[in-house]
Specification:
With 200 residues, the chain is an all-alpha fold. The chain has one domain (10-199). It contains ten helices and no strands.
């Protein structure tokens, strides 16, 4: 019997690295703007949220199109979301707080948007740690229960963005609308609607 390693598709792996390569290019070119730390932190956070929403979009798209091959890419999308969440957290801890535990703890306790972001990141850690097929087999049905943490993690990510932005809420509200839609499509009536659309 032949076994195949579950490497991500090269095109998806390349696309997932593009945001990071863009940040590196802009940094080398000195084009990160007047506040490079804010640019790096905001960009990595945005792509972490985009990755979460794309991961949540896989199942509805599969139901809509019938293309089961989409499910092969869900884990890769989720890991890229975690990757950019790690870069986002690192940018905050290193570039913004200079690894000062007291300052970080103060921010987590006193600033609601930091609290929400920290909570979202904490929920993503066990998902990334159990993303392998070996862990799926070891956990059995508990794996599916555990990985439902992606829902509150995505919700907290949107809340983090909403509370972070002080003036123009257009962008975080757009992410909120997409998240609500993706969650609604998982409800019974949402699944029926997708089935009806596909049957037309």
């Amino acid at each position: 019997m032949r076994y195949r390693l579950a490497w991500p598709a090269p095109w998806l792996f390349g696309l997932g690295l593009l945001p990071l390569l863009r940040i590196i290019y802009l940094g080398v070119a000195g084009e990160l703007g007047a506040n490079p730390i804010e640019f790096i932190t905001r960009s990595t956070g945005t792509w972490a949220l985009v990755g979460l929403l794309l991961t949540l979009a896989v199942t509805p798209l599969r139901r809509l199109t019938g293309w089961t091959g989409l499910m092969r890419h869900r884990r890769t999308l989720g890991l890229f979301a975690f990757f950019y969440a790690c870069l986002h957290a690192l940018a905050y801890v290193w570039l913004d707080q200079f690894f000062d535990p007291a300052a970080i703890l103060h921010d987590i306790v006193k600033r609601p948007f930091v609290t929400a972001g920290f909570a979202a990141f904490t929920l993503l850690v066990p998902l990334a740690m159990t993303s392998t097929r070996a862990m799926m087999r070891r956990l059995g049905h508990r794996w599916s229960v555990l990985h439902r943490l992606i829902y509150p993690a995505a919700l907290l990510g949107v809340v983090h963005f909403l509370w972070l932005v002080k003036k123009d809420l257009t962008e975080p509200l757009a992410y909120a609308v997409v998240l609500v839609l993706l969650l609604a499509l998982r409800l019974p009536w949402g699944r029926r609607a997708l089935g009806a659309i596909r049957g037309q």
